[in-house]
Design a protein that fits this description.
Strand content: under 5%
Number of strands: 0
Number of helices: 11
C-alpha cells in the first residue's frame, strides 16, 4: 500500500523536474534568441530596419565602390532625419504629417537615384565619372545632350575642365529627377483633395496646407533648375571664366540662390566664406572617392594573383578608404542640407 501511495508523489516529482528542465531550456532558448537579436542589432549598419534592408540589398547589386559609399552617406543622413522625426512625433509636433511625407519623398529620391525603386528605366549602370570617363552615361534630356555635345567639340575645354563640366551636367540631371519625383507626389496629393472636394473635411485642410508647402518646394527647385540650365548654356558656349569664384556645381548653385535670398551684405559675405570651406570639403571628398576607386581596382587585381599577404594589405587599405569616403560623404551631405535650409528660409522671407 505504501508503495502504491508513493507512486503519485513520485509522478508529481518527475513532472516538476521535467517542468523545471523545460523551463530551463525555454529560458536558455529565449536568452539565446535575445543574445542573437542583440548581436544582429549591434552588427547592423543602421538603427532603422528599412534602411538596413536597403543597404543589404544594395550590397547584393553591382554598384561600384564609390556609389556604395555615396549610398551609405545618403542613408546615414536619412537615418538622422528619421530618428529626429520619431522624437518629434512622440512629442506631437508633426500633426499635419508634412515631415513624415518629406522623409518618404527623400527615401524615394534615394531609391530612384541608385536604381532600387523597381523601375527598369531608372536602373543605374555600374559607372561613375572617375572610372569610366564621360562617355558612359546619358543625360536623358535633349537640351542637355545638345549643350554637352557642343561643349565637347568646341575646343574651349581641357580634359580636366570637361570632367568638371560633366559633373555639372550630371548634377543638373539629378536636380531634374528630384523635381519630377516631387511633382509626381504633388499631383497625387491634388488628386486626393479633388476626389474629396464634395465632402470637405479637416483632413483635406491639412492636405491643402501640405500641398502649399510642396508647391513652395517645387518653386524653389524649379528656380534652381532654371538658374543651373542658364549657367550650363553660358559655360558650354563661352568656356569657364577664370575669375569664377567657385568651381563645384553644388556650391555654384548655392551661391546663385544665396544672392537671390534676403541676406544682408554682411550675411552674404559670411555665407561666401562658408561656401569656400564647403567647397574644400567637397574637393577632399572627391580625392578620397578617386583613391577608393583606384584601391578597388588594385584589390580586384591582387585577388586574381592569389598573394595572401599582398591581398590582406590591400584589403586593409581599401577598408580604410571606404570608411573615410563614407564619413566625408556624410559630412558633405549634412553640410549641404544645412546650407540649403538657410537659403530656403531666406527665399521664403522674400515671398512674405
Amino acid at each position: 500500500m505504501a508503495a502504491v501511495r508513493a507512486l503519485p508523489a513520485l509522478a508529481a516529482a518527475l513532472l516538476l523536474a521535467a517542468a523545471g528542465q523545460a523551463s530551463k531550456y525555454s529560458r536558455e532558448a529565449n536568452e539565446g534568441l535575445a543574445a542573437a537579436d542583440g548581436k544582429r542589432r549591434e552588427s547592423a549598419e543602421f538603427r532603422v530596419v528599412r534602411l538596413n534592408q536597403i543597404w543589404e540589398k544594395a550590397q547584393r547589386l553591382h554598384l561600384s565602390a564609390v556609389k556604395l559609399a555615396e549610398l551609405h552617406s545618403d542613408l546615414k543622413l536619412q537615418e538622422k532625419d528619421e530618428l529626429s522625426w520619431k522624437k518629434l512625433k512622440a512629442e506631437g509636433l508633426d500633426e499635419d504629417g508634412e515631415k513624415e511625407a518629406k522623409l518618404r519623398r527623400n527615401l524615394n529620391v534615394i531609391m530612384t537615384k541608385y536604381g532600387m525603386n523597381g523601375k527598369k528605366d531608372s536602373q543605374l549602370v555600374d559607372t561613375n565619372y572617375i572610372k569610366d570617363g564621360t562617355e558612359s552615361d546619358t543625360l536623358d534630356d535633349p537640351r542637355l545632350e545638345k549643350l554637352w555635345s557642343k561643349a565637347k567639340t568646341s575646343g574651349k575645354f581641357s580634359d580636366e575642365e570637361l570632367d568638371k563640366l560633366w559633373r555639372e551636367f550630371k548634377h543638373h540631371k539629378e536636380k531634374i529627377r528630384e523635381y519630377n519625383i516631387l511633382l509626381e507626389t504633388v499631383s497625387r496629393t491634388e488628386a486626393d483633395i479633388h476626389k474629396n472636394v464634395i465632402n470637405p473635411s479637416e483632413e483635406n485642410l491639412v492636405k491643402e496646407e501640405i500641398l502649399h508647402n510642396k508647391h513652395r518646394e517645387l518653386k524653389e527647385k524649379l528656380r534652381s533648375i532654371n538658374q543651373g540650365f542658364e549657367r550650363l548654356r553660358k559655360v558650354s558656349h563661352q568656356g569657364y571664366d577664370t575669375t569664377s569664384e567657385f568651381e563645384e556645381p553644388r556650391v555654384i548653385d548655392l551661391w546663385d540662390m544665396a544672392k537671390s535670398a534676403n541676406f544682408t551684405e554682411k550675411e552674404l559675405e559670411s555665407f561666401r566664406e562658408e561656401l569656400k570651406h564647403f567647397e574644400a570639403k567637397i574637393e577632399k571628398h572627391h580625392h578620397y572617392q578617386k583613391q577608393l576607386e583606384i584601391s578597388h581596382q588594385k584589390l580586384k587585381h591582387v585577388e586574381e594573383t592569389g598573394d595572401k599577404d599582398h591581398l590582406n594589405r590591400n584589403k586593409e587599405k581599401y577598408a580604410m578608404l571606404q570608411e573615410k569616403t563614407k564619413e566625408l560623404g556624410y559630412k558633405v551631405k549634412k553640410h549641404l542640407q544645412d546650407l540649403s535650409s538657410r537659403i530656403s528660409q531666406g527665399l521664403q522671407h522674400n515671398e512674405l
